[in-house]
Write a structure and sequence with these properties.
Chain B: Belongs to the binding-protein-dependent transport system permease family. FecCD subfamily. Chain B: The chain crosses the membrane at residues 12-33, 60-82, 94-116, 122-144, 156-180, 200-219, 253-277, 289-308, 315-336. Chain B: It is a multi-pass membrane protein. Chain B: Keywords: Cell membrane, Membrane, Transmembrane, Transmembrane helix, Transport. The complex is a heterodimer of chains A (266) and B (342). With 266 residues, chain A is α/β, with parallel strands linked by helices. Chain A folds into two domains: 7-232, Rossmann fold (3-Layer(aba) Sandwich), CATH 3.40.50; 233-266, no CATH class. Chain A is built from nine helices and twelve strands. In chain A, strands 6-7-8-3-9-10 form a six-stranded mixed beta sheet, with helices on both faces. A four-stranded antiparallel beta sheet of chain A has the order 2-1-4-5, with helices on one face. In chain A, strand 4 and strand 5 form a beta hairpin. Chain A is globular. Chain B has 15 helices and no strands. In chain B, helix 3 crosses helix 13 and helix 4 runs antiparallel to helix 5. The chains are: A alpha/beta (266), B mainly alpha (342). The A-B interface holds A 54, 56, 74-80, 83-86, 88, 90-91, 93-96, 98-100, 102-104, 106-108, 121-122, 125, 134, 137-138, 140-141, 153, 156, 160 and B 1-2, 4-5, 8, 91, 223-224, 226-227, 229-231, 233-241, 279-280, 283-285.
């Protein structure tokens, strides 16, 4: 598939009822082959931003992918392009993992032509394999741990092969090993497909080291947007997260954020 | 792994086959037993050569026994399907047309026409009864859906609303009984007890035809329903128009409940129990779960119909009483198994 994009968002306003959560956001276009980490304190509007992009909640904005206006597409087609992975885990139902993946494929009717060459089960198994969970294929969702279900949710999203992936805290239930493994897989997929990947992250060190770009939201507005090292500075961390912090470099030369205390409210 | 999954599929196929076998066996037994004491060979002869047997025998076999047996199958399958879809749509293991008041609403709808004696030149009273039952069932399902969608809705809130609906419509049906004349009263009692004895070929034809078409629509939505089972937000994020799927499903549930109730009255617990058994046996891939729940429902009602015939010698007990007595222990098991509720 040739690179598509970019994903452009202009004057995005969204909220629930009368409460406005996002105020007129116009970030720089999101380009394919790049991971953009979406960070910000609780309630800064990260999930709302992704939901608005995917069309799950109503919003006012100009949203285009390449030269296609996303707002004009029906939900099913929009999900083929911008797939949102919710923060909630897939429910613990009596459904074998492999069928959970097949259902995700079939949710919008038969699969697209390009992918029909391999069978549905093989396609599902291949994705489980890439996430190193193929041993779970025949286990019921109801018997899996939270972290395992999160991985299956991610496999559901990845196996749909969208143009843009919008991931809402996909690492929240994962252990250290899987956090790293998933981020590495996402990097790989983002570069190879290529994908436009937006990912909500709370772990700023992961954002600092594994994202290509960081978009920092604060109270529904863009606080900073750029290269991770340029965005995640001590000043920004103090203003937005209210912590005293500095960025150090480890022996390998990788930067990491060291927190030294709570900053007083200004 | 591929091979192992194939094996799972094969196992499910065999389970469905066994269910079908059990249904056939139950039907044959149900068909063969009766107060008239006809021998199996006489029954077979009547089936194959109806013109050569006495008129009473023909009447018993063709107009009483066969419709009774087939009606049990059709209504059981309809209730099994309605219950399965309801549990998926409302994400609630206690949902069924009976437990959440949809059947009671349909019974009230039916009683309304019956007691007022409403009929027109164009539409027969029995059609009006079904239509009225459908409208009341649909209204109750819409209310339940609204409540299960609201932000405060927990499993308990939906179940409690359902119980409120049951009580309300039961009271309304009682009111109808109070004001009904003698003839209508007898019909009403039949409705509230749930009985297969008024089965007829016309009714069997209607419920088999409409139920068959409805089930095709259900099967077509199987993948979407399976996805919905994993969470509403997830289903929507995968591109499913959740509101549309729910709406279509609610109409199907109302149609199936209304048909069942207007033909045989309120039959409890089949719609609750069948999906649970099907889920145990076949999992929640709706390609298997939906037909499995239909088959289980058909089997349960067929067995209940059989028990209803033999429970009191020489008398056919209303089937609704049998299913309720058998279903209540099961209901308690579901309630006490907390993990399913959470």
């Amino acid at each position: 598939m040739p690179p598509v994009g970019p994903l452009t968002v202009k004057n995005l306003n969204a909220g629930f009822g009368r409460r406005r959560i996002l105020h007129d956001l116009s970030p720089k276009p999101f380009v394919s082959g790049q991971i953009c980490a979406l960070t910000g304190p609780n309630g800064s509007g990260k999930s709302t931003f992704l939901r608005a992009l995917s069309g799950l909640i109503p919003s006012q904005a100009t949203l285009t992918l390449g030269d296609e206006n996303l707002a004009h597409l029906p939900l099913a087609q929009r999900a083929q392009r911008c797939l949102y992975l919710p923060q909630t885990l897939p429910a613990a139902v009596q459904l074998p993992v492999i069928e959970a993946l097949m259902a995700a494929q079939r949710a919008c009717g038969p699969r697209r032509h390009e992918e029909i060459t391999i069978s549905e089960t093989e396609h599902a198994l291949a994705w489980l394999d890439r996430l190193s969970v193929s041993h779970l294929a025949l286990k019921n969702m109801s018997t899996l741990s939270g972290g395992q279900r999160q991985l299956i949710g991610l496999a559901q999203a990845l196996s749909r092969r969208p143009v843009s992936l919008l991931l809402d805290e996909p690492l929240s239930a994962l252990d250290l090993h899987h956090q790293f493994a998933v981020m590495r897989l996402l990097q790989q997929e983002t570069r190879e497909r290529p994908l436009i990947t937006l990912i909500v992250l709370h772990d700023l060190n992961i954002a600092l080291n594994m994202a290509d770009r960081v978009l920092l939201l604060h109270e529904g507005r863009i606080k900073a947007d750029g290269l991770p090292a340029e965005v995640l500075t001590p000043e920004v961390l103090r203003d937005v997260y209210r912590v005293h912090a500095h960025v150090e470099r480890g022996q390998s030369g990788r930067p990491f954020i060291q927190i030294s205390g709570i900053a007083e409210k200004t | 792994m591929h091979e192992a999954y194939r094996k799972t599929l094969r196992k499910r196929g065999i389970t469905l086959l066994i269910l079908t076998g059990a249904i056939i066996l139950s039907c044959l037994t149900d068909f063969a037993i009766g107060p008239s004491g006809l021998s199996p060979s006489a029954l077979l002869h009547t089936l194959l050569h109806p013109d050569t047997v006495p008129a009473t025998q023909r009447l018993i076999v063709w107009q009483i026994r066969l419709p009774y047996t087939l009606m049990a199958l059709c209504v059981g399958a309809a209730l099994g399907l309605a219950g399965a879809e309801m549990q998926t749509i409302l994400a609630n293991p206690l949902a069924s047309p009976f437990t959440l008041g949809v059947s009671a609403a349909a019974a009230f709808g039916a009683s309304l026409i019956l007691v007022t004696g409403l009929h027109t030149a164009l539409v027969s009273q029995s059609t009006l009864i079904t239509a009225s039952a459908f409208i009341c069932a649909l209204l109750s399902v819409l209310l339940l859906d609204k409540i299960s969608q609201s932000r405060v809705a927990s499993t308990n809130v939906v179940v409690l609303t359902g119980i409120a609906l049951v009580f309300t419509f039961q009271a309304l049906v009682s009111l109808m009984q109070f004001i009904a004349n003698e003839d209508a009263l007898q019909d009403l009692v039949f409705w509230t007890l749930g009985s297969l004895t008024r089965a007829s070929w016309a009714k069997v034809g209607v419920i088999a035809g409409v139920g068959g078409v409805v089930s095709l629509f259900s099967f077509r939505a199987a993948w979407q329903l399976t996805t919905l089972r994993m969470g509403e937000e997830r289903a929507a994020s995968l591109g499913i128009d959740v509101a549309r799927i729910r709406r279509a499903s609610l109409i199907r549930i109302s149609l199936l409940s209304a048909l069942a109730v207007s033909f045989v009255g309120v039959i409890g617990f089949v719609g609750l129990v069948a999906p649970h058994i099907a889920r145990r046996l076949l999992g929640e891939d709706h390609r298997f779960y939906l037909p499995g729940s239909m088959a289980t429902g058909a089997l349960i009602l067929s067995l209940s119909a059989l028990i209803a015939r033999v429970l009191v010698p020489g008398l056919i007990v209303p089937t609704g009483i049998v299913t309720s007595l058998a279903g209540i222990p099961f209901f308690l098991i579901i309630v006490l198994r907390r993990e399913e509720l959470n």
